[in-house]
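Morning F.,

Quick status update on the modeling queue. The single chain you submitted on Monday has been processed. Sequence for confirmation:
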Amino acid sequence: MTGKIIGILGSPLPKGNTALLLDRALKGAEDAGCTVEKIVVANLDFQPCMEMMFCKEHETCILDDDMQAMYQKFREMDSLIIATPVMTMGVPGKLKSFFDRFQVFFMAKYVRKQSFFTAEQRARRKAFVICISGMDIPEVFVGAKLTISAFLTIIDCKLRDELLISGMDTKGDLRTQPDLLEAAYAKGFALGKTLNP
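Structure tokens below.
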């Protein structure tokens, strides 16, 4: 069975280091037999969550913007790759707003007790997280990991693997670091193989 994997680019730079890693991971998943789709969050037109609570009783959001299509895509996908830089010890603002708009899934799962996913789907849905940081300090990934973990729990997608790269201020262009690009490819391939053993 061919699986569908979505890759989220959280960086505002469409051709930066985070994008390079995501592209390699998606190539790995594709080579493992999956259908892949890349979503560049910076290109989406949407508002942040306004807490209007429409989703408390409905399966969508009252705000009519690009997130409407995202909800359907995230219900149909089998697994997910998230690629983001660390900004202010967390994820970039637009990516955080993207995550926040999944209150639609939160309300279905925790308030109405009507999850969008069957037990079989929940067992299948896995995530691979790529996160890079310019700084090289002990807790640089903690904030981003907490936010991403909450998001994955809300959308019923279990963390399978991660690639955390610190010290990017000194590493520079990752095209000069083929081992890191290969690691992203290998982990993307492994994620794809969970859907196509």
